[in-house]
Amino acid sequence: MSDKKTGGLAGVIAGESAICTVGQGSGLNYRGYSIEDLAAHATFEEVAYLLQYGELPNLATLNTYKKKLIAARSLPEKLKTILENIPKTAHPMDVMRTGCSALGTLEPEDDFTTEQDRVIVRLLGIFPSILLYWHHFHNAGVRIDTHSEQDTIAGYFLEKLHNTSPREDQIRCMHVSLILYAEHEFNASTFAARICASTLSDTYSTITTGISVLRGPLHGGANEAAMKLIDSFANEEEATKGVYEMLEKKQLLMGFGHRVYGLGGDPRSPIIKSWSKKLGGDTATFRISETIEAIMKKEKPQLPTNADFFSASAYRFLNIPTDYFTPVFIMSRTTGWAAHVKEQRANNKLIRPSSEYNGPDNREYIALDKR
Ligand code: CMC
Fold first, then answer.
1. What is the distance in A from the centroid of ligand 1 to the CA of 259?
2. Same domain, yes or no: 245 and 281
3. Which mutation among 9, 245, 258 tests ligand 1's pocket best, with the greatest number of atoms within 8 A of CB?
4. pLDDT in tens, 152-171
5. Residue 75: closest CA among 49, 106, 101
């Protein structure tokens, strides 16, 4: 089968997983728990634990897990030096990818069978520190201290980004967003991380792989691209004119469409939209977002908003710089990648598909001086 026929492997069942259902009748579930319930009631740390270990934690295990995540925020001196030497102009996704990979050289994982859980917690804890150390060093010449009274990744990230204590509703929105982005079955970055794990590579390499694949605008980078689209319009009239022009030119509108979800749409979208409305419903940004959504609903009902479209405005209302939207996605999706890496390792078989050859027939080698 050629790639055209398989169409990016659309509809191909590429393996088994007990972690998550996506668009399979029962909606989006993480280990059997609906995304609606988790977003309404859980903290991100509970979901991270659920994905890493398979069950929701009780209070004692949650507190122990949170203590480990807090301890994992600290930055080794050598990593600080590396972050200081990455240019200010670097893309923050490249900072995250480099930070992850560099940590693997400073705190190597010798044997993933005994060390994978330690490394996963370390990465979850340190990712906000990596991004924000680099951010404050290059923007304000400040070497941030990773100490904080905030006991969650949501609160820690917002506090360190803005140098001030976030409001409770802002922290809750951040939890919800991290929960929604945590896991999504065999999406491109997770599948890539599983392929990496299937070679028996180490945990840092699998997460670095995930980051590299998430970076593209057809995947995680869509939240940044959606924000740039919304920002390109000053008001609803401009948005209406602009979106019709884009549709006329058959251009992609970022934040719409999904490989797996059909007309019913992405169940994460209404949840994050409600938070976007709560935090910024009276702003031009929200009104422009709704205008774009309404036109797409009318003209392209087969392409509903996906999780990225209203995540963009929700992050804007949390005052997160646009370039940091996809790095925040990493802070969340590391939980899903890690769950899949562990699942792959538990019953491993090298992932190595075949391709159908469509190149030239066999031919004679031509000597260099005869070409
Ligand atoms: N805007 C305009 N047209 C679109 C869009 C869109 N967002 N998405 C798909 N189409 C068109 C596409 O051009 C194609 O048209 P035609 O048949 O005339 O060539 C048709 O719809 C089918 O699209 P496809 O690209 O074959 O579908 P796919 O399943 O390969 O793509 C997708 C899925 C998510 C890559 C695609 O919908 C897209 O590019 N969306 C914009 C990027 C985006 O929002 N990505 C985030 C995905 S969800 C969260 C995540 O993974 O991070």
1. 7
2. yes
3. 258
4. 999 999 999 999 999 999 99
5. 106
Q: Would you name the residues annotated as active-site residues?
A: 219, 258, 308
C-alpha–C-alpha distance, residues 3 and 369, integer Å: 36
Helices (H), 43-187: 44-53, 59-71, 77-85, 92-106, 112-140, 153-162, 168-181
Per the structure, the complete domain to which residue 46 belongs is given by: 16-215+325-346
Check whether residue 335 and residue 226 sit in a common domain.
no
Hey, what are 219's tokens? 């995947």
Domain assignment present for residue 362? The answer is no
> Which tens digit of pLDDT belongs to each residue from 250-278?
999 999 999 888 778 899 999 999 999 99
What pTM value is reported for the model?
A: 0.95
Between CA 214 and CA 327 the distance in angstroms is: 9
CB 274 within 8 A of CB 186: no
* 255: enclosing H helix or E strand: none
Q: What residues are in contact with ligand 1 under a 6 Å CB criterion?
A: 8, 10, 187, 218-220, 222, 252-259, 303, 306-308
Q: What's the domain count of the chain?
A: 2
From ligand 1's centre to the CA of 257, what distance in Å? 5
> Does residue 276 fall inside a structural domain?
yes
